[in-house]
Amino acid sequence: MSENDALVTYELRGKVAVIGLNRPAKRNAISDRFVEAINEAVLRARAEARAGVIHGHGKHFCAGLDLAEHSEKPLFEAVKGSRRWHTVFDHIERGTIPFVAAISGAAVGGGFELAASTHIRVAEDSAFFALPEGSRGIFVGGGGSVRIARLIGPARMGDMMLTGRVLSAEAMERWGGVSYVVPEGTVLERGVEIAGQMATNAEFTNYAIINALPRIADMSSEDGLFAESMVASLATMTDDAKERLRDFLEKRAAKVKAPGDG
Predict the structure, then answer these.
(1) How many CB atoms neighbour CB 255 within 10 A?
(2) What whole-number distance in Å separates Cα of residue 115 and Cα of residue 169?
(3) What is the pLDDT of residues 7-61, one digit of tens each?
(4) Radius of gyration over alpha carbons of the chain, in Å?
(5) 203-249: what fold?
(6) CB-side neighbour CA atoms (13 Å) of 118
(7) Residue 133 annotated to the active site
(8) In whole angstroms, what is the distance from residue 173 CA to residue 167 CA?
(9) Phi/psi of residue 157, each to 5°?
(10) What's the 3-state SS for the chain?
(11) Could you tell me which residues come within 8 angstroms of residue 55 by beta carbon, excluding any fewer than 6 positions away?
(12) Which one is catalytic: 40, 93, 124, 133?
């Protein structure tokens, strides 16, 4: 058993790995050892599952960086710690399976950065989001200046950091940082449901979606269109795609319908 096991829980529900942040007394604040525990769970999920869910035990998803630990770090150790967060969160964002963040309570600072590294964010209607770095004399270090800024825009992110404003789940949904808002007490169930749906997709298609889309966003329009053609062509070559296309053409697969259309 790993020494990091107590910091996270791990459960396999069919093809979905459910990863629980398990430091509720600290509102799941992230320490260096906690980062390594998250990494171990994410790598295990990539080996065993087709999709994953990250949630917080207790009342909160994650209250961010453990400031008690961070305040004692020498300068270069802080740099290396930030870069380690980047590596671990990249294992989520640009790995091999899609992840859902199931957010209850606080998604603050590094907790919001962790959520931003997932592909879909589901939040309870009582959840809240904040980036209090400005008032604490620090700066985001877990990838937020890239990931959060791309979700909600740098001006809105700057507003949150400069003013310390706290946003509700509904407001964050309007800003683009949350995909779904659900009633309190239902977020994990909904997150697992969404992950289960993603787990039924073709493996290569999921891989292409989570790896090609962010890279294409970094390209010029012409380079992006060329890359899209390559990825689209590769996707159709897989046995999975050929079988699914045959099922559709031979009317064994359901057609896309309007919402509410039975």
Answers:
(1) 6
(2) 13
(3) 999 999 999 999 999 999 999 999 999 999 999 999 999 999 999 999 999 999 9
(4) 19
(5) Lyase 2-enoyl-coa Hydratase; Chain  A, domain 2 (1.10.12)
(6) 27
(7) yes
(8) 10
(9) -65, -45
(10) CCCCHHHEEEEEECCEEEEEECCHHHCCCECHHHHHHHHHHHHHHHHHCCEEEEEECCCCCECCECHHHHCCCCHHHHHHHHHHHHHHHHHHHCCCCCEEEEECCEEECHHHHHHHCCCEEEEECCCEEECCHHHHCCCCCCCHHHHHHHHHCHHHHHHHHHHCCCEEHHHHHHHCCCCEEECCCCHHHHHHHHHHHHHCCCHHHHHHHHHHHHHHHCCCHHHHHHHHHHHHHHHHCCHHHHHHHHHHHCCCCCCCCCCCCC
(11) 18, 19, 20, 21, 61, 101, 102, 103, 104, 187, 188, 191
(12) 133
Per-residue pLDDT averaged across 111-126, rounded? 98
Structure-block tokens of residue 116: 């931003």
The pLDDT tens digits of the residues spanning 71-82 come to 678 899 989 999
Query: Could you say which of 40, 93, 113, 124 is catalytic?
Result: 113
Cβ pair 133, 164 in contact under 8 A? no
| Assigned CATH topology for domain 5-199 | 2-enoyl-CoA Hydratase; Chain A, domain 1 (3.90.226)
pTM above 0.90, yes or no: yes
Domain boundaries along the sequence of the chain: 5-199, 203-249
